[in-house]
């Protein structure tokens, strides 16, 4: 069914758009997002992937494959280190699909899943940075200065963008 729908082309276009919007938000609002006391990282790519899992219904979109491709582009373009997000994005898609087996998809459950996914992404990227000595930030400083503000920003973005993204997915079906 996926091959016959507009999702075949619309999903990758939306993913690319979210990739560029992530970078644009960081560039335009860099002074507000990246301060010495608080760092906020937008994860619109993850929002697109998670919403795909929430809204896919009977369409079997290869979200994990697209997540790996988006992770490779994200790694090469934004982080400069290949391999972190290539594994994290498909892992988050897998985690979301597992959780979706136990709860019904709606706005509040999507918000909870997105909260968990952003926490996993930030924690794994922090651990990867610690392993290759890119950061020397203590765990408590990471929780207060990076994870908390990042969760606040991304949950606000989820609340604002959930219904427009749902409309786009319904239009593409």
UniProtKB/TrEMBL annotation:
<dbReference type="GO" id="GO:0008360">
    <property type="term" value="P:regulation of cell shape"/>
</dbReference>
<keyword id="KW-1003">Cell membrane</keyword>
<keyword id="KW-0812">Transmembrane</keyword>
<dbReference type="GO" id="GO:0005886">
    <property type="term" value="C:plasma membrane"/>
</dbReference>
<keyword id="KW-0472">Membrane</keyword>
<dbReference type="InterPro" id="IPR007227">
    <property type="entry name" value="Cell_shape_determining_MreD"/>
</dbReference>
<comment type="similarity">
    <text>Belongs to the MreD family.</text>
</comment>
<keyword id="KW-0133">Cell shape</keyword>
<protein>
    <submittedName>
        <fullName>Rod shape-determining protein MreD</fullName>
    </submittedName>
</protein>
<dbReference type="Pfam" id="PF04093">
    <property type="entry name" value="MreD"/>
</dbReference>
<keyword id="KW-1133">Transmembrane helix</keyword>
């Amino acid at each position: 069914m996926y091959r016959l729908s507009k999702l075949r082309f619309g999903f990758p276009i939306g993913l690319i758009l979210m990739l560029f919007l992530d970078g644009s938000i960081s560039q335009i609002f860099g002074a507000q997002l990246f301060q010495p006391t608080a760092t906020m990282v937008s994860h619109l790519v993850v929002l697109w992937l998670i919403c795909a899992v929430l809204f896919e219904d009977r369409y079997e979109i290869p979200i994990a494959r697209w997540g790996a491709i988006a992770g490779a582009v994200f790694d090469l373009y934004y982080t400069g280190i290949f391999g972190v997000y290539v594994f994290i994005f498909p892992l988050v898609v897998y985690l979301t699909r597992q959780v979706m087996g136990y709860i019904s998809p709606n706005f509040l459950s999507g918000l909870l899943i997105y909260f968990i996914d952003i926490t996993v992404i930030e924690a794994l990227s922090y651990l990867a940075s610690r392993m290759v000595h890119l950061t020397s930030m203590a765990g408590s400083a990471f929780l207060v200065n990076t994870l908390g503000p990042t969760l606040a920003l991304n949950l606000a973005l989820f609340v604002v963008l959930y219904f427009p993204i749902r409309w786009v997915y319904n239009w593409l079906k």
